[in-house]
UniProtKB/TrEMBL annotation:
Residues 61-374 form the AMP-dependent synthetase/ligase domain. Residues 497-566 form the AMP-binding enzyme C-terminal domain. Its EC number is 6.2.1.3. It catalyses: a very long-chain fatty acid + ATP + CoA = a very long-chain fatty acyl-CoA + AMP + diphosphate; tetracosanoate + ATP + CoA = tetracosanoyl-CoA + AMP + diphosphate. The chain crosses the membrane at residues 6-28, 117-136. It comes from Ficedula albicollis. Belongs to the ATP-dependent AMP-binding enzyme family. Keywords: Fatty acid metabolism, Ligase, Lipid metabolism, Membrane, Nucleotide-binding, Transmembrane, Transmembrane helix, Transport. The keyword Lipid metabolism applies. The keyword Membrane applies. This is long-chain-fatty-acid--CoA ligase. GO terms for molecular function: long-chain fatty acid transmembrane transporter activity; long-chain fatty acid-CoA ligase activity; nucleotide binding. GO terms for cellular component: endoplasmic reticulum membrane; plasma membrane.
Amino acid sequence: MLCTWLSTVAGGIVVLCVSLKIFLPYFWEDLIYFLRRKRSKATVKKWAKNGIVSLIDLFMQRVEKNPHKPFLNYEGTVYTYQDVDRRSNRVAQAFLHYGNLKKGDTVALLMGNGPDFIHVWFGLAKLGFVVAFLNINIHSRSLLHCINTCSAKALVIGEDCLGSIEKEFILNLLENNVAVWLMSTSSPSQHVHTLPDKLDKVSENPVPSHLRAVTDTRNTALYIFTSGSTGFPKAAIITHLRTLVVSLVFAQCGAVSQDVMYVTLPLYHISASLLGIGGCIQLGATCVLKKKFSARQFWNDCRKYNVTMFLYIGELCRYLCNQACKEEDRVHEVRIALGNGIRPSVWKEFLMRFGPIKIFEFYGSTEGNLSFLNYTNKIGAVGRAGIFSKFLHSFELLKYDIWKQELIKDENGRCNKAPIGKPGLLVFRVTEDAPFSGYAGNKEASEKKLLRNVFVEGDVYLDTGDLLVMDEDGFLYFSDRVGDTFRWKGENVATSEVAEIIGMMDFVQEVNVYGVSIKNYEGRTGMAAIVLKRYHTFNGERLYKHVEDFLPSYAQPRFVRIMVKIEHRTSHLPRSKREIVEDEFLTPQNYGGFKIQKKCPMHVQRRMKQKKRI
């Protein structure tokens, strides 16, 4: 009887496993990911019960448990959790004694990758300040916009950024009562503070713990700037709860405390700061921090420091694949890669070249309330809507008219879902568990991101501004982006900002900027369509110098068109409906670095070939 019963059970299990393999081939991966996500939610709740309501609280717990565990490895110098804690205490003490700031004030950070970025960030957080991360590539005009947007009371400038800061910019800040702190021992003015010398004068004792105390996890912890889907850079509000939730993503990929993470992406982005540094803190792992990415040094560093996981953007993987093949390409311990923007062809080449690394492509945005993770390693997919996904997040792909740049609605004014295999506008349901915190100092932009009464009266969805496609198996693929931004070199470029800068030239009557594809390159680069003023001639060298002075390198247009008039009806089309440029970079020649196409209407697709590359 027992044997019969056991045989029946065993047979049933076999039948079930075979059935799942045939009809639900991703069942077990869906289930494992679902359980990891549920465990992450339970972890956040457990932290709250134990008084851990911020990333700094979590860091302090790690310091207490493993004070001598290596936390940062920067250019061969190792900083333990305790080292970073003590150094950040000195930063906190310096601002407490000399800063003339109060809890809740915003302090902006203009610093490149390095231990001091972490020390200053954590030190400011220990005083209860909101920290704003600034992109080190942007120039004075945009910096002023960012500082004003987040109402910063002080700015800390890293030593590596001092050379690019103009004296007029600092004077402008001082006139507006924004304190300026330099990571330098010398100051250009008695009104500009220096930080390193003050760190030697204060103790490394902790500041009073009540200063960092968080009364509500929905309070603001950080401002991280993003172009979103339209307009100038906006300060996305990152709450304390968000910092804790994002720090758990690597754990959902199967990472453990023994892992060593390699971070080469800029810390002012959410990926490096919260996924990377925050992820290491959550795991109790070690971070190998690089000042900037180097394709030539990448794998040597991985071997040297026993790296087991890294963060990427699509360009990073392409650069690695473009390096000359070596016998030791597969000689490393890397097992996990987490990031976004890798093209399917690069994905395949990367795996064939460097071995069976588990690539976790994700979809998300700085200001977004939800994200996707491709936990099955399906090449090309940015995520998956598995059989358990409805218990994790609520999203929809809505029918969208790419020519009119608007949602397709029925006779009752309600939206329709996009069919399987067709692009649709991705929207996330805004709920108490998945809130949208919006942008600092910009209620209008925050409200524009919300869609109301989408399916029923009173519902609210977050408009991501991205078109995605879902296949029959539930895999999601990025299709295109709507709005007036494009992505180049891993950065968002606001076309309105670029157009305004170019429009300052005295020979420009009208300008329209948009992104164009370049063969074998990720993202889009800038195309500026210009109408000249009457009786004026185009001066490429002056324009080249002008955009160099006012725009970061990734936002500077690589192409210029001189036109009789601009056809505005196509200026806001998704990029797949605009220009496709089969090119790489442009030779300066007589136009200051710009390629000129005369009298070529924007709405006519035209392939442009370039012989040289610089």
